[in-house]
Amino acid sequence: GLSQYSSDPRTEWDLSTYSTRDQVLEAVRSLRYKGGNTFTGLALTHVLEQNLKPDAGARLEAEKLVILLTDGKSQDDANLAAQTLKNLGIEIFAIGVKNADEAELKQVASEPVELTVYNVLDFPLLSSLVGRLTRVLCTRIKEKSSKESTGSAVKDIPVDMGPQLSPADLKISAVTSKSMHLSWTPPLRWPKKYRIVYYPSKGGNPKEVVLDGAVSSLQLSNLTSHTEYLVSVFPVYDTAVGDGLRGVTSTLPLSPPRSLRVSELSHNSLRLSWKAAQGATQYLVLCSAAPDGAED
């Protein structure tokens, strides 16, 4: 399975989409590079929520591996999301290219980092890792499988999150041109934290707020007026991530000035007056000559 991410993670194909090596290689050759921001925490949450579920092809008896490929430092909290995956027994391998932060890669990756963290100076050099990485991955799978067969406990990803781990009924209220209020019904089992991610639907930068699990409301401020926002609320536990809540709401437009009037005309001046716009701190007045043929 493969997902690409920037500010919004996108599943390219699920674990169950292809069944042969040639099909996977052809899919990789046809892949379009996404580009953009580096919200690694959001991407890892997406992998857990969307890509490692049984309906996406994840088999409960199979070992779970995530290979993170990044060329930059994360713009959100990657460590919290990574720790959730690792608590579920999911192995994370971190591969950095160019401007990746090696300290962050070591935080995100599973132990021992000597086997799970790789860094190269440019994308063409990734090919030099393939042989070694393949051997390490296969060895780790064999080791974990042998432990399981000897009776060691192996954690499975919860199949049914349900109301036990997932909040419900996201309400967005008190919407103004610059703010909105979020509230939701907490799950039966309170999470350790909530991750709230919000961003303009037309490609703006996502922002993230982390709340204590005992809180179930939030005021979002300093928003852009007259803009549609996508909002997600993720409950985070020590060993799981519940299903997220999602909502879409537009902020109100800024109040415009009204009733423009022109008076005190002379050969080189005129006076303008208008009804004030609520909340305005300044006005920009633009004046230009009317085009030829236009009304005076």
UniProtKB/TrEMBL annotation:
<feature type="domain" description="Fibronectin type-III">
    <location>
        <begin position="166"/>
        <end position="255"/>
    </location>
</feature>
<protein>
    <submittedName>
        <fullName>COKA1 protein</fullName>
    </submittedName>
</protein>
<dbReference type="InterPro" id="IPR036465">
    <property type="entry name" value="vWFA_dom_sf"/>
</dbReference>
<dbReference type="InterPro" id="IPR050525">
    <property type="entry name" value="ECM_Assembly_Org"/>
</dbReference>
<keyword id="KW-0272">Extracellular matrix</keyword>
<feature type="domain" description="VWFA">
    <location>
        <begin position="1"/>
        <end position="133"/>
    </location>
</feature>
<dbReference type="Pfam" id="PF00092">
    <property type="entry name" value="VWA"/>
</dbReference>
<dbReference type="InterPro" id="IPR013783">
    <property type="entry name" value="Ig-like_fold"/>
</dbReference>
<dbReference type="InterPro" id="IPR003961">
    <property type="entry name" value="FN3_dom"/>
</dbReference>
<dbReference type="Pfam" id="PF00041">
    <property type="entry name" value="fn3"/>
</dbReference>
<dbReference type="InterPro" id="IPR036116">
    <property type="entry name" value="FN3_sf"/>
</dbReference>
<dbReference type="InterPro" id="IPR002035">
    <property type="entry name" value="VWF_A"/>
</dbReference>
<keyword id="KW-0964">Secreted</keyword>
